[in-house]
Amino acid sequence: LPELPVQYADYAVWQREWLKGEVLEAQLGYWKQRLEGAPRALELPTDKPRPAVQTYRGDTRPVQWPRALWESVKGLAQRENATPFMVLLAAFQAVLGRYAGQEDVSVGSAIANRTRAETEGLIGFFVNTLVLRAKLKPEESFRQLLAQVRETTLGAYAHQEVPFE
Predict the structure, then answer these.
(1) Which InterPro entries match (predicted)?
(2) C-beta neighbour count of 158 within 10 angstroms
């Protein structure tokens, strides 16, 4: 294989050098403004109470979509200048909000965080978590929610370098 132009350590040094001072303050300011007043948890009805200590044990459920449904999602995304991810996120947040009875819904989403071309061939864990928040308004249409989710997602992508921790 050809020699890589950079190593993971180079990326770590670059990130540390770039993400300080005014840049760090601007990046953190974005997230503080976006998340100010967000609920700490989504109060979904459950069959069991939340455990006293979080376990991080989860599960997966595979889902097979009919082709026509997937084509509809892609078509809506294209018409609204969004991505299928944004359409599905908006729908997911609308459902979560309805079940929880809340109008403020935040969802965590992983992002590759490979914003520099030099990192494409590197092996390393660049993944970061983004908090994508939607404020649901019963009087608004799904298209209006999708527009909000689109703007939120694009803003989060532009500020993805701030480590979630």
Answers:
(1) CAT-like_dom_sf, Condensation_dom
(2) 11
